[in-house]
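Hi C.,

You asked whether I'd gotten around to modeling the 242-residue construct. I have! Everything is below, sequence then structure, no commentary in between.
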Amino acid sequence: MEILDVLLDFIFPPKCFLCGNIKDYGEKSAVCKDCEVILKPIPSGLCRGCGQPYCGTELVCLNCTSKRLYLDGNYSFCFYDGPAKDVIHKLKFENHPEYASKLVDYIYSRDKLNFLHEFDVFIPVPMHKYKEAERGFNQASLIANSLAKIFKKQVNTNFLRRIKDTTPQSLVSLSERDANVNDVFRVFLPKNVVIGNVLLVDDIYTTGSTANECAKVLKQSGAKTVFLFSFALAGKSKTFFD
């Protein structure tokens, strides 16, 4: 089998799924060495409200101290630039849903994410039903399902629903993002169901407005804690960690 694998690699050289370049011979990772250098895991120390770097012991940056925060914390694997930005664009807009599982497998190869064992249910940030039908999938659901397979967790796509079709957050000014998602989500829980500790899952984390609104309605429906997992962190200062 090893000889066959070598022969196949010689005839069809494996490519990095992020940038498309041919990987070095014998390289086992799904990502080439150049992309691995760029896709470094983000160190801890991000505000639980907006994802910005913070200083202090309260897990909140100065800008978020006056906000009502429902989100208990967040994790983003890498910054939303370079190959990370390219692969998310291909996943969402070029019909490559298979990239979701590849991203999760790659993240897990770099970070074992042991803290995910603490959660009772994984809930993807929902799209409006019309937008999901147009795309054909919700990328957050794909990521959540791939994580759940690794950690043997339940994924629920029915508890949390987006009931209003609003302007995408990326097209709204930073000052208007909280208002743009206000009363957009609703929780639908079967009788006597307790959701406990929730892992909210999304592809990109930007200002935290969407995640905080999701956390608000989930906690109003009985969630004990709500933590956000995302692949990439957008709009933050990478130089802070250099």
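If it helps when you're writing up: The longest strand covers residues 197-205.

Thanks,
B.
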